[in-house]
Recover the amino acids of this structure.
């Protein structure tokens, strides 16, 4: 066949390509290779009677490659041409070649391309590519959805398939929730009504208390169905066992790692904690009558708080690092103290925070120079893992957890006290610079309350209020 084509012997059809070049061919060869050409030449279509046929379904190079494949049975598939070949094979109804192309792409699956390949496999019915793509997405869910924005182009049906699969590997449901919210907001007008269906697939009982503490503030959840699902998840933490309307009330596959206890407090309680050099005291109350519950001494310095080098809070309690290199975690819910794994960071003057069940270290000094380094403590590998760096290099910044974001306020840089407001999204690893603080506050404190963040006290004896929703600062006292 190749010889006949090369010699242009018994040619009975000429293909005209998009670049105006031509390929002399044989109708029988084209008809035997492709149902598309078989239909064209055996029907009453005008092309069946013409000596020359114009083709425009692909570029000229791809069409030439396919015609050579018809005559030789051989084709070179590369990462550069595979997408064009898939589209052309679909047009020409080349089932066997599509299968080869699917097998080729199976060997190239990685975090950066697996969602794109998954969508492609559905579009062109590449049945041998769909299962390995889905398996990779499920087993690398967080990595895949963080590394590429392609997931926002998934169809509703494709996303439902992923979310409803028990093999989806997730340490908790926080990232699943944030992924669904981002998918909906990528096309809010058309997808807003689909959030309720998606929310039913999120296994809220296995999310963190951090998420449950602010999820009701997300506008997409402000409907009776979502509020009921969230109420059930909160009830799970308070020990009640309501009738579950949520279809998925059992845990997914969880990544294997070293044991790390996680405890959750009662959502219906307000807890007040007093920390001094001698003790940690707690007062809990239900409702707003805070004066009727006496303070109780839960921890004493002789047992736990002696020689504290670092101190920080989380939704589940208090954390401190002692000079012996131990990470102490006092659990507000049970009053117990748990010793957790700890590795000392390689830099000084960083600020710690407990976010999504991991300890983060922000900023600090390396060789005496302020840095932008951010790291999280990987419990499974027992080492600090690099995260997205800050936008401004500072040491000892205030760190405040507000909704799903982290705010780094002030700190010290090479010029002295800094006024930076840096917003960090730990879900997606993104940083933004916000409006600067209106003044200096050294050796003070920063807290979040309701819709605002307050920076107060310090040697300047100030009180500043920051509202993240409007990115505005207000001086309350100076």
């Amino acid at each position: 066949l190749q010889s006949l084509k090369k010699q242009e012997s018994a040619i009975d059809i000429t293909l005209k390509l998009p670049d105006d070049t031509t390929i002399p061919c044989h109708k029988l060869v084209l008809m035997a290779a492709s149902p598309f050409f078989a239909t064209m030449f055996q029907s009453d279509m005008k092309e069946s009677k013409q000596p020359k046929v114009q083709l425009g379904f692909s570029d000229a190079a791809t069409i030439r490659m396919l015609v050579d494949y018809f005559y030789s049975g051989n084709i070179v598939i590369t990462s550069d041409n595979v997408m064009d070949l898939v589209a052309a094979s679909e047009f020409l109804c080349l089932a066997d070649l599509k299968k080869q192309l699917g097998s080729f792409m199976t060997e190239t699956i990685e975090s950066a391309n697996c969602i794109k390949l998954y969508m492609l496999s559905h579009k062109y019915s590449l049945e041998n590519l769909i299962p390995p793509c889905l398996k990779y997405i499920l087993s690398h869910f967080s990595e895949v959805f963080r590394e590429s924005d392609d997931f926002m182009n998934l169809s509703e049906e494709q996303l439902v398939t992923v979310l409803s699969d028990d093999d989806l590997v997730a340490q908790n449901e926080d990232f699943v929730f944030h992924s669904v919210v981002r998918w909906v907001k990528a096309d809010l007008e058309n997808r807003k009504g689909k959030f309720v269906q998606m929310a039913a697939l999120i296994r809220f009982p296995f999310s963190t208390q951090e998420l449950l503490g602010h999820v009701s503030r997300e506008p997409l959840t402000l409907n009776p169905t979502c509020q009921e699902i969230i109420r059930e998840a909160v009830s799970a933490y308070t020990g009640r066992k309501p009738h579950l309307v949520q279809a998925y009330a059992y845990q997914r596959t969880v990544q294997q790692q070293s044991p790390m206890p996680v405890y959750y407090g009662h959502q219906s309680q307000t807890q007040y904690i007093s920390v001094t050099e001698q003790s940690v005291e707690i007062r809990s109350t239900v409702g707003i009558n805070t004066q009727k519950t006496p303070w109780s001494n839960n921890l004493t310095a002789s047992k736990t708080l002696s020689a504290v080098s670092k101190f920080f809070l989380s939704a589940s309690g208090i954390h401190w690092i002692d000079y012996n290199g131990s990470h102490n975690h006092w659990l507000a819910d049970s009053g117990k103290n748990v010793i957790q794994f700890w590795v000392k960071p390689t830099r000084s003057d960083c600020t710690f925070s407990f976010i999504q069940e991991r300890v983060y270290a922000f900023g600090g000094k390396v060789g005496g120079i302020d840095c932008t380094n951010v790291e999280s403590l990987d419990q499974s590998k027992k080492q600090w893992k690099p995260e997205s760096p800050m936008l401004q290099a500072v040491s000892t910044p205030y760190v405040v957890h507000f909704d799903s974001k982290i705010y780094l306020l002030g700190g010290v840089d090479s010029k002295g006290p800094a006024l930076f407001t840096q917003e960090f999204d730990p879900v997606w690893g993104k940083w933004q610079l916000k409006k600067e603080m209106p003044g200096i506050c050294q050796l003070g404190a920063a807290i979040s309350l309701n819709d605002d963040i307050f920076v107060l006290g310090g040697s300047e004896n100030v009180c500043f209020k920051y509202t993240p929703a409007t990115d505005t600062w207000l001086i309350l006292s100076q």
